[in-house]
Amino acid sequence: xxxxxxxxxxxxxxxxxxxxxxxxxxxxxxxxxxxxxxxxxxxxxxxxxxxxxxxxxxxxxxxxxxxxxxxxxxxxxxxxxxxxxxxxxxxxxxxxxxxxxxxxxxxxxxxxxxxxxxxxxxxxxxxxxxxxxxxxxxxxxxxxxxxxxxxxxxxxxxxxxxxxxxxxxxxxxxxxxxxxxxxxxxxxxxxxxxxxxxxxxxxxxxxxxxxxxxxxxxxxxxxxxxxxxxxxxxxxxxxxxxxxxxxxxxxxxxxxxxxxxxxxxxxxxxxxxxxxxxxxxxxxxxxxxxxxxxxxxxxxxxxxxxxxxxxxxxxxxxxxxxxxxxxxxxxxxxxxxxxxxxxxxxxxxxxxxxxxxxxxxxxxxxxxxxxxxxxxxxxxxxxxxxxxxxxxxxxxxxxxxxxxxxxxxxxxxxxxxxxxxxxxxxxxxx
Length: 430
Ligand SMILES: Cc1cc2nc3c(=O)[nH]c(=O)nc-3n(C[C@H](O)[C@H](O)[C@H](O)COP(=O)(O)OP(=O)(O)OC[C@H]3O[C@@H](n4cnc5c(N)ncnc54)[C@H](O)[C@@H]3O)c2cc1C
Known about the structure:
Layout: H1 3-13, H2 16-25, E1 37-41, E2 46-48, H3 52-63, E3 69-71, H4 79-83, H5 115-128, E4 137-145, E5 150-157, E6 164-169, E7 172-174, E8 181-182, E9 196-199, E10 213-217, H6 221-232, E11 236-240, E12 247-249, E13 251-252, E14 255-256, H7 257-265, H8 270-285, H9 300-307, E15 312-314, H10 317-322, E16 327-329, E17 332-335, E18 339-342, E19 347-349, E20 352-355, E21 359-360, H11 363-366, E22 367-368, E23 394-396, H12 403-429
Parallel strand pairs: 1-6, 2-3, 2-7, 4-22, 7-23, 9-20, 10-11, 10-20, 11-16, 12-15
Antiparallel strand pairs: 4-5, 5-6, 8-21, 13-14, 17-18, 18-19
Helix pairs in contact: 3-12, 7-8
The structure holds flavin-adenine dinucleotide (FAD).
The site of flavin-adenine dinucleotide (FAD) has 35 residues, from helix 3, helix 4, strand 4 and helix 12.
């Protein structure tokens, strides 16, 4: 997509208004080709992040002949999937709910594609739509310059030493994801603990923990799956469960739980569907509170809608807990050299701790803007489905807490909106 910059610089060179605005605004020390501080004018949207969301946005724009560029801090597309996930990961939801716009998963892929298959799908997607992100470019700062009516992004290249580039564009699409930075809790005594302490973003497989006692902190989908992986590698995992959690079977009545829920919601109110899900879960999994996994008072779908908290889709962990291969433990009070002290007063020795404590958005660190994103959690302040559009050509994709399905919806809306804007301008100009 490089041509976007070059060609559009050419177009802008013939746009006296644009050139006047930009020239008026140039700093006295205008960049030269040898200057470590370069400035690039982009006439199309700039997308920050080359995960599935960024790719989907670029593809939808491409379908409308709107060129864009993607800036990506790592050296590959879908860096979360390629660099920060464990080996045994599969899509949690069936493939038809995870496809990006205009491209289905290959029919020979299983219902729940493996991580490698998903990455292959995304690489193929980027290839099909000729998406070539600019890698090793970290956006450090972005703000709207009302004098020229454009966004200015300061970008640091981790590849070319200290080069910083300023991108100037009219549309900014934030696609940095809900999972941009690992959340690592402060645990008393962590410095003293002599075993490994590792966030799940750095956990690959249970192989290195064979024969070891491992404490997994956090009982979301990742924590549950890491426990299962550790069991399968002959480690002895325990699971810290601090909050209540809905565990549902991944499939019920021969269908995926997610697909069945979506179908039922077409006919029945959410509360009734929640009751149905809980009844079937109870029949299939039994009373999870007997295992130390209390259910929240709100139903799984209601909770998801209100807080974004995803129910755990069980892929076999519960059976291991029932069989006593995984122990459930309360919150950690503090760590000592080899020991974990729990809030119930019990102490146990562990060789390692895996933190399945989730991720957070990094938008507040780099986007200087107060209307659209909450600076507290880095998510759009308007609730779904209205969080995708802000002011001055600012958009968000992939912040709906609705996974890849939500990102696809955002991508189509954003491309339509930018197309409308261009059409209106063309009409106005003619
Ligand atoms: C273990 C796990 C399993 C999951 N399974 C599913 C599933 O089965 N189905 C589903 O729908 N969802 C699933 N998800 C949710 C997941 O968030 C989405 O699938 C998907 O990765 C979101 O895509 P994204 O592009 O919005 O964000 P990401 O994939 O996180 O991509 C964001 C990109 O932005 C880049 N970036 C961040 N900050 C900057 C910056 N300042 N400058 C430049 N680049 C930057 C990052 O390097 C990254 O490449 C899962 C998540 C995890 C962690």
